[in-house]
Amino acid sequence: MQGQDKLLVGLDVGTTKICAVVGEVSGGEINIIGVGTHPSIGLHKGVVVNIDSTVESIKKAVEEAELMAGCEISSVYAGIAGGHITGFNSHGIVAIKGSEVTRHDVDRVLEAARAVAIPMDREVIHVLPQEYIVDEQSGITNPVGMAGVGWKQKFIL
Amino acid sequence: MLESLASGEAVLSDEEKDLGIALVDLGGGTTDLAIFSSKTIKHTFVLALGGHNLTNDIAIGLRAPFAEAEKIKKKYGTCISMNISSEETIDVPGMGGRKSRQLPRQVLGEILEPRMEEIFALIKREIYRAEMEHVIVSGIVVTGGSALLDGVLEIAEMIFNLPARLGTPFGIKGLVDVVNNPMYATGVGLVLFGAKNQSQKNFRIRDKNIFNRVVDRMKKWFNDVL
Q1: Angle of CA points A18, A22, A26, to nearest 5°
Q2: What pLDDT does A151 receive?
């Protein structure tokens, strides 16, 4: 993106159309500076059935957005959807070292929740913390700095 | 990045996400459901029915070519036949060189209404299956390209018995007129999500220089072992 790291591109690959949105971040505000849409060919019910025509459609949508925003797009945030995505809840439990919860403890509990048995053909896309439970006290969203001994965390994967 | 999560980022307010809300993204091929509560996502579901099925129904019901059916859906499409006067007619092009015909617009409502009801009924069943019916107190937000269809919100309110509103991206500047459309909810949401994540990354990197971070990492390893 020509050294402008403040530009962000969202790419939505849908079954009927593909749309690329270029946003510029400036001081906490987001300016939309370019939009490109192109009818999507090669997708059926949210799943790619013809990869070559999908690539062509994406290229065209991105080109349109590039023209509108006057920039070169090199990386995007892409969406994922389809009947093959599932979510499930998991728990991570760790003991706290010392008396206060630190950033490191949060990372460790995330790691623990990630370590669930999933089939070989699947992978974890998101770990979304739902709540942290410190010493039976539930509903905590940001636990850093709290005191406790053992804690667990609920997740959706 | 899960698409329903991105759409939620763009079209839902923080209060709605806190209180509990169901986001229904009516896409072309799929309908995505995402339930938010206490500011986090609670449940997601993807239904393999969408705007494409509506077009297909029109094509079969009116015996019209697929491309024309899509045009008719966008121009005259309505999910509630009651609201349409019986005198209103639409021009349906014939297939394979046949002559075009005049049909009452009410027919469109009769075709689209049951399909839309089916989609929402299946979503409702999933909400009950996941035992989330008491979570979504703020109601329903409908987004995605097919949400623009006339009467979708009325059907959603009827099926769910909850207030429904159209989800359009907000909290952005620039080409607002262009993207102020449920079609762009996911695209804008992905940009917003990217902006959020980027600022987090920057914060972490600026926190310390490389050497300190390496030392910190090694300290952590030792702590873990102890």
Answers
A1: 155
A2: 44
Arch. (CATH architecture) of B1-226? 2-Layer Sandwich (3.30)
Instruction: Choose among B28, B40, B174: nearest Cβ to A17.
Output: B28
The closest alpha carbon to B40, from B12, B3, B68, belongs to B12
Nearest to A10 among B2, B40, B191 (CB): B191
Non-local (6+) Cβ contacts of B149 within 8 A are: B51, B54, B73, B77, B78, B79, B112, B116
At the second CATH level, the architecture of A7-78 is 2-Layer Sandwich (3.30)
Tell if the CB–CB gap between B29 and A46 is shorter than 8 Å. Answer: yes
Domain segments of chain A: what residues? 7-78, 89-156
Query: Burial level of B70, CB count in 10 A (0-12/13-18/19+)?
Result: buried
Task: Check residues A98 and B53 and name the one with the higher pLDDT.
Answer: B53
Contact A20 B187 (CB under 8 A): yes
Cβ atoms A114, A106 nearer than 8 A = no
Q: What is the CATH number of domain A89-156?
A: 3.30.1490.110
* Average pLDDT, integer, range A10-25: 84
Task: Tell whether the torsion through CA atoms of B142, B147, B153 and B157 is positive or negative.
Answer: negative
pLDDT of B47-82, one tens digit each? Answer: 888 888 899 999 998 888 888 888 888 888 888 878
DSSP A100: B
Confidence at residue A122, expressed as pLDDT on a 0 to 100 scale: 64
Domains A7-78 and A89-156 agree in fold: no
State yes or no: ipTM above 0.85. Answer: no
Phi, psi of A96, deg, nearest 5:
-90, 130
Instruction: Give the closest residue to A86 by CA, choosing from B129, B78, B43.
Output: B43
Q: Most B CBs within 10 Å: which of A7, A11, A16, as the mutation test of the B interface?
A: A16
Neighbours of B4 (CB within 10 A): 32
Instruction: Calculate helix-pair angle for B152-160, B106-129, nearest 10 degrees.
Output: 40
Q: Are residues B93 and B71 in contact, defined by beta-carbon separation less than 8 angstroms?
A: no
